[in-house]
Amino acid sequence: MKIKVSVDISEQQSRFLLSEKKFTAFVGGRGSGKTFVLGHRAAGRAVNGRNQLVVGRTYKELRQTIIPSVINALELYRIPFKQNKNDNILTLAKSKILFLSGENPEAIRSYTDYHDGYIDEAAWQKQMVMKNLSMCLRGKDVLNPTVSFTTTPRGGSWFNLFVTKSNQEKLELIKCSTFDNPFLSEDSLELFKEALSGDEKLARQELYADMLSESPINAVIPDNLIFMSDVPSDLPVSIGIDVAREGVDNTFIVVSNEKGVVESNKFSNLDGINLYLNFEKIAKKYRTLCSVNVDNTGGWASSFLDIVKTTDYRDKVFGINFASSASNNIYANKRAEMLFKLRDLCGKKAFSLKNCQDVVSEINATTYFLNGAGQRQIIDKKLIKKDIGHSPDELDAVSLSVLNGFNLHTNEAGYSPLPQQGW
Known about the structure:
Blueprint: H1 11-18, E1 23-28, H2 34-47, E2 52-56, H3 59-77, E3 82-84, E4 89-91, E5 96-101, E6 116-120, H4 127-136, E7 146-151, H5 158-165, E8 171-176, H6 186-195, H7 200-206, E9 237-242, E10 251-257, E11 260-267, H8 272-283, E12 289-295, H9 302-308, E13 317-320, H10 334-349, H11 359-365, E14 368-370, E15 376-378, H12 381-388, H13 393-403, H14 418-421
Helix pairs in contact: 1-2, 2-3, 8-9, 10-13
């Protein structure tokens, strides 16, 4: 069945859509149209009776960007289909398109009878996704199976190594920089440039799709900014509190001054009352307390904040929603903004992390990328948990502890204290 449609695409996008190689990699900078071409390739091949299996990093990304891209292509081709939102599957007359998350690679291997597989943001997924996806491309009617990748490169990743060492007769590598996409607006290009100003290596990776061979260079806090010097305890301090969610993660109370982390305390199974009692015990040890920043994303700290508003600490305590808007548009949200503030402090003042418990492993797993709006965004916590086995709670608490600065008379973050926030 052949359908002719008129679609504006770039030369690189056309090569990806027409490739018949066993492996096809569309390695693109931010805004190069990776999701767009994935949607059109999957839809086009499904029209020809081939079952498609698409693996995204998370179900959230699948539902927000990838599935809509495939649906848009099918509607453009005027191909009838039925959508099962619960099972994340699109059914056509002679084929189907299944969408799975790469969060649990082992869950992928049980599927069969798929002709073509796709891994979105492959460089940012585990290699086991690739291995288990390949096992699904089998069946008595499966001929000439293919695997397609759409991704921004990632220095040191399995994907970069796979592409550079693959037989070029079996793999077609298509590189497309941000600037190769003629359909991006000048405003978007300027925003991308501004977000990566001063970071040449990351710009090469994120904008020009350069496949760097060195270790990941998009860590929020690179190794050369991690210091382990002694920290004095007689300076003004601020406190950061990262509150456990649903009893799964740990609660951290971190005390810092301008020289570094003074102490880091880990707790489990704390309710609001016991969290306050532990906080008060720690706070009383210091003569000058500048501010207390508490993670209140999702309202998990609400009981603690209700208690605090009745105490003398109420003017110093600030509830912080990680998902709220940043004060600077180059950051995707407040979480990204506060982590980059910690990075700046490490770079400018050799902020010491010596007194932390396991923050270095959390730092090594916490990377960032440019999202579709050209903003710096931290990778999903679910991906960090997959990498190190737990949430980066201590790193979040350290970041909270530096967010408002260490000057008693200066509210650097510009937040209102509790009585003005309506608690």
